Amino acid sequence: MVFTHLPSNVFLILVPFMPTLPLALAFLFLRSALSQMDVPARSSYVMAVVSPGERPAAASVTAVPRSLAAAVSPAIAGYLLALTSFGWPLVICGVLKIVYDLTLLRMFSHVRPPEER
């Protein structure tokens, strides 16, 4: 999952540095092509490593923070864009997502689903 996210996040960070609109759009399209490839694998992994009774709670715990972040982030991005026209929201978001992905990789790389043990 992390291996598709890392290039996706680098593409996001590079968007504000593109000198032309077509290049910026190309990087956004590249990012879009890679950014959601992990959703089925992530859902499957979460369901595999928790007990059947914990699956509904685990599904909500993994979905709710994403929804909250999606609700709050436009206000923060708007504030940053009011300060300067540079794409700081894209750079900050890309860096935060890289740190998040590498942290998850480190925390869960040793956790295997029961059928893989």
Question: Secondary-structure map with pairings?
Answer:
Elements: H1 2-14, H2 21-35, H3 39-49, H4 55-83, H5 88-108
Helix pairs in contact: 1-2, 1-5
Structure description:
- This protein has 117 residues and is mainly alpha-helical.
- The protein has one domain (2-116).
- 76% of the residues lie in helices and 0% in strands.
- The protein contains 5 helices and no strands.
- It has helices at residues 2-14, 21-35, 39-49, 55-83, 88-108.
- α1 packs antiparallel against α2 (21-35) and α1 (2-14) packs antiparallel against α5.
- The protein is elongated, with a radius of gyration of 17 Å.
- The mean pLDDT is 89.
Q: Indicate the overall shape.
A: elongated
Structural class: mainly alpha
- Low-confidence stretches at least 5 residues in length (pLDDT < 50)? none
Mean pLDDT equals 89
Major sheet characteristics? none
Number of domains: 1
Oligomer: single chain
Got a strand count? Answer: 0
How much helix is in the residues? over 70%
Order of helices and strands: HHHHH
The helix count comes to: 5
Strand content: under 5%
The rounded Rg comes to 17 Å
Distance between the termini: 20 Å
